[in-house]
Specification:
With 310 residues, the chain is of the alpha/beta class. It contains 10 helices and 13 strands. The chain has a domain of 204 residues: Rossmann fold (3-Layer(aba) Sandwich), CATH 3.40.50.720. The N and C termini lie far apart (54 Å).
C-alpha cells in the first residue's frame, strides 16, 4: 500500500503541533509546510525517523505552495492569524492563501483537503477576521468541492494565546479586563488535541468529504466565567474588571500607535468579535459526528496554568 503523505500548512503553530503529532501517531508521513523550517525542527521528533519532514512554504507564494503539496495524498491548511501585522494580512492568508492551497491541492491530485476556518465565519460580519474566514471557505469549496471545513470555537491547550494571555495579565494586573461589562460573549472552548483528532478522523473517513463541522467543547461559558477560571487556576488574588466599550476603543487606538506587550494589545477588529457569541450552531455536525469525545476544560486548564501559580 502506498505511503500516506499529508502536507500540513501551519504545522509549527500552536494548533499545528497537535495536528502533526496526531497525524504521525496515525502512521502518516507528515510534511510540515512552514515559513521557517529551521525554527520548526522541534517537529521532527514527533514521529519516527524520517516520518516528519519540513518544507519551506509561504501562502503568499504560489510556487512554494505547489512544491509543498506535490505528491501529497492529503492537504491540511491550518494557517490563520488573530491580528494583522506587516505583510500578514487577513485577506492575504484567510482568503487568497486558502484559495492558493486549494488550487494547488487540486493540481497535485490530492485525495482530500481539510481547511481550518472558525466559528463565526460570516460574509456579513462587522469583523474583518470573520468576513475573510467566510470568503476563504467559499473559495476553498469552489476550487475543491469535496474539501472538509472545520470551524472550531476558541481553541485551548498548552501554548495557546487565549487562556495563557489572561494568565500573564493576572501576574501583573489586579483585575482582568472584561470589555463591554456584563458577562461578555458566550464561548465553547475546544481542546486543541480534540481538534487534531478531528483532522485525523476526517482524513480516515470518506463520509466527511464536502461537509462542514463546527467544533466546540462540552461546556458553553461566558467570557466572565473564563476570566474567573483563569484567576482561580493561576492562584492569584485578582478580580474581573468590567470596562465600557469606549475604554476598549482607547486601548485599541493605543495598541495601533505604541509597541505594547502582546498581552496588553487589543485591536478594533477583536472588539467587534467580542460583541457576538462564539458557539456551535444547534443541530449542526461537530466532534461527536467524527467520533471524538470532547475534553472538558477541567481536565486540561489546571495543569496548563500551574506554571503561573505563585
Amino acid at each position: 500500500m502506498a505511503e500516506v503523505v499529508v502536507t500540513v500548512f501551519g504545522g509549527s503553530g500552536f494548533l499545528g503541533r497537535y495536528v502533526v503529532r496526531k497525524l504521525a501517531a496515525s502512521g502518516a508521513a507528515v510534511r510540515a509546510a512552514v515559513r521557517d523550517p529551521e525554527a520548526a525542527m522541534f517537529l521532527k521528533p514527533m514521529g519516527g525517523v524520517g516520518q516528519v519532514s519540513l518544507v519551506q512554504a509561504n501562502l503568499r507564494d504560489q510556487g512554494s505552495v505547489e512544491a509543498a503539496v506535490a505528491g501529497a495524498s492529503a492537504v491540511v491548511n491550518l494557517v490563520g492569524i488573530a491580528t494583522e501585522h506587516g505583510k500578514q494580512r487577513f485577506d492575504a492568508l484567510h482568503t487568497d492563501g486558502a484559495e492558493r492551497v486549494a488550487k494547488a491541492a487540486v493540481s497535485a491530485d490530492a485525495r482530500h483537503l481539510v481547511h481550518m476556518s472558525a466559528i463565526g465565519a460570516d460574509h456579513a460580519s462587522p469583523s474583518v477576521y470573520a468576513r475573510t474566514k467566510a470568503a476563504g471557505e467559499a473559495r476553498v469549496r469552489e476550487a475543491f468541492p469535496s474539501s472538509t471545513i472545520l470551524r472550531p470555537s476558541v481553541v485551548f491547550g498548552f501554548g495557546d494565546e487565549f487562556f495563557n494571555r489572561f494568565a500573564v495579565l493576572a501576574r501583573f494586573n489586579l483585575g482582568l479586563p472584561l470589555i463591554g461589562g456584563g458577562n461578555g460573549p458566550r464561548m465553547q472552548p475546544v481542546y486543541a488535541g480534540d481538534v487534531a483528532d478531528a483532522v485525523v478522523a476526517v482524513l480516515a473517513r470518506g463520509d466527511a468529504r464536502g461537509k462542514t463541522y463546527e467544533l466546540g467543547g462540552p461546556e458553553v461559558v461566558t467570557l466572565r466565567e473564563i476570566l474567573e477560571l483563569v484567576i482561580r487556576e493561576s492562584g492569584r488574588r485578582r478580580f474581573v474588571l468590567p470596562l465600557p466599550w469606549w475604554v476598549g476603543s482607547l486601548a485599541a487606538a493605543a495598541s495601533a500607535i505604541f509597541p505594547l506587550p502582546s498581552a496588553l494589545r487589543v485591536t478594533f477588529d477583536q472588539l467587534r468579535q467580542l460583541r457576538t457569541d462564539n458557539v456551535a450552531g444547534q443541530g449542526g455536525q461537530g466532534l461527536s459526528e467524527l467520533g471524538v469525545a470532547p475534553t472538558p476544560m477541567a481536565a486540561i486548564i489546571p495543569k496548563m496554568l500551574a506554571r503561573f501559580r505563585p
